[in-house]
Amino acid sequence: MQSFFNVKLPPVRDDIFKERKEMEPIKRILTPTLERPNYYLIIGPHGCGKSTLINFVAGTFKKGIIHVEGSDDIEKFGENFAKAINYPELDVNLVKWLVNQLSGGPYTHKLLWQKVLSRFEEFASKAVKKYSIHPVLIIDDIAKIATNYPKVVERLQNVAKTAADHRLFTVVFVASDANLIDNFMKNSSYSRCRTLYIGDFNENEALAYLINNRNINAQIAKRIFDLCGGRISHIVGVASEVDQLIALRKSLRKSVDYKDNEFCEEVIKIVDEQVNGIKQDYRQVWDTYVPENSNRKILQFLCNNLDAEFTRRDIIRLFDERTGEYIFSTLLKNNIITYKGGIIEFGAPVIKTMLSELHEKEQEIDV
Ligand SMILES: Nc1ncnc2c1ncn2[C@@H]1O[C@H](COP(=O)(O)OP(=O)(O)O)[C@@H](O)[C@H]1O
Ligand SMILES: [Mg+2]
């Protein structure tokens, strides 16, 4: 029973992990000895470092935190949950077997995640009494569950509220797709949810990461930040390319010293190429998903508002209602834009550059 609550998480490498200011509030949310009358939602754009941050902080506790990865396959979600609490393998197989045997398909019977949840609830109530642990259940990437099973998210939200009412355990949802927030916020228990927004690294954090954790010199670090902004997933991608360049140069016995001009030029070339690659990926997303006949209007709007705040309504009213809704959700789904509270932001800093370059090109063609 005690091992049930041992913290098992994907490891985060200390040497590469960059501490950030959100660690404190996350620590308060995750502390597995505190009773709380609420449940939590941690939200922020795709690739801003939510999972890594949460796993790192959770890893500083020995007991009482359960981390479950969401999935758009409900069976897989059940399996993730089962693994997270050491739900016996036999039971997992037995449940699968039963579900198949008893015909009618999985939906008429208790699904694996529900079975595992019941077991979790049972253990949680014992843990509170016996070990003074107040377990924390993290459900990461709930947008994945919400895509195919909005009702399951609703159920989980109700479980979270009831658990908070009885001070049994704390549920922490993690999400990057704000589409889901609409339904999540409409749930009557939402007033019991505390929301924490996590965004991109600020300039100091990004530079400190590149300079101290990745040994990149200050000038090139600044260039990377200017191009990528503080989106850590992009920064990590660029830094890894630089590592590869260094490995290659070492194997060719060439200099890897930032005082050497030739080396610096090579690094800058690699950085620029990598950022261009990121931009092209977004460009492809834009070309693939934004319908051609709406393309210009929305591009114009976004480029006029690169540094302004705008809302969902502002986008929708550019078109007729249905088209507007469609364009809005297409942009959201594909991470071109993202929600921060009621305000829309660009999905990642390089998207702004990608869009304005595209806009300029189109205007040149017009002339
Ligand atoms: N604090 C950090 N220090 C170093 N690398 C980080 C940090 N946070 C995130 N990363 C890296 O950035 C990438 C995206 O992070 P992730 O946690 O998966 O983002 P999210 O869950 O918000 O989509 C991963 O490759 C991860 O290793
Ligand atoms: Mg994540």
UniProtKB/TrEMBL annotation:
<dbReference type="InterPro" id="IPR003593">
    <property type="entry name" value="AAA+_ATPase"/>
</dbReference>
<protein>
    <recommendedName>
        <fullName>AAA+ ATPase domain-containing protein</fullName>
    </recommendedName>
</protein>
<dbReference type="GO" id="GO:0005524">
    <property type="term" value="F:ATP binding"/>
</dbReference>
<dbReference type="InterPro" id="IPR011579">
    <property type="entry name" value="ATPase_dom"/>
</dbReference>
<dbReference type="InterPro" id="IPR027417">
    <property type="entry name" value="P-loop_NTPase"/>
</dbReference>
<dbReference type="Pfam" id="PF01637">
    <property type="entry name" value="ATPase_2"/>
</dbReference>
<feature type="domain" description="AAA+ ATPase">
    <location>
        <begin position="36"/>
        <end position="202"/>
    </location>
</feature>
